[in-house]
Task: structure prediction
Amino acid sequence: MQTFKIADQTYTSRLLIGTAGYPNFHIMAEAIAASSAEIATVSMRRVKFTDTSGENLFALLRERDMTILPNTAGCFTAKDAILTANLSREALETSLIKLEVIGDEQTLFPDVEQLLSAAETLVKDGFTVLPYCNDDPITCKKLEDIGCAAVMPLGAPIGSGMGIRNPYNIQIIRDLVRVPLIVDAGVGTASDAAIAMELGCDGVLLNTAVAKAHRPVLMAEAMKKAVEAGRAAFLAGRIPRKLYATASSPETGMIE
Amino acid sequence: MKIRVNGEEKTVHPNVNVYDLLIVLELNPTQAGIAVAVDREVIPKTAWQATELREDSEVEIIRAVQGG
Result:
């Protein structure tokens, strides 16, 4: 199966996994391993002076030789997202950034105007920008034109588990952009991830569907298989949909 | 003098630099994975010792946490 490239890095797995919201650090670590993901997202937050847990996410991901993809989650303005990106580049020694500029707390939909402006500045500053965006073909095209390394439209609102709400838009985006297309957010279960891949996406980024599953490690494994199956189905080429039946067994040689 | 670190007020020696501030806060300045901004400007690790804080400086010390 073809490998997948972001910027100059080649990946075998097309599943990108989030690290938030697991029952505990140990289950997170096991779920990430079960997913076979090679890219994991993290957030940048204030150091807690009282933290004595000894849990070090950065060390764990480094030890596993994973690509760390910091996000700008929680930023509502281009200005905050740019500062967060600069802090993450300094802290994690990576120019990769999952750019999120949120427009509204209830939906967590992106603020497109702020997103485009932040993307432009960060690309100019040498970042490899992976923007979380609406499933809007025009926005995706603009982000590609700005120089983003991928586009990451949402399937549905973050954490909603609603699946791919507008598969037709994802299909149009696939036709319109040449950079890697990654569905980010909205996946609820394995079939959602498979559908994203069957539509021709290059990858799927998910978090809550695994972290909040009853058995996160098992769901991580399911997601891995779904992404692989969906990719294979896309490459194989699905049959056209038809309203009426076409017999698959021979129609001649019947007993009389 | 008084400064703010991650939103908390702290009293520190006048003109303490970023590197020494981290030691005072019992944060190992040589550890990987942390970054510092002073008054919303990122201070590269190589400049921590040369960057002195002033009264009312706003310091942010951040690291990677679990995120989606």
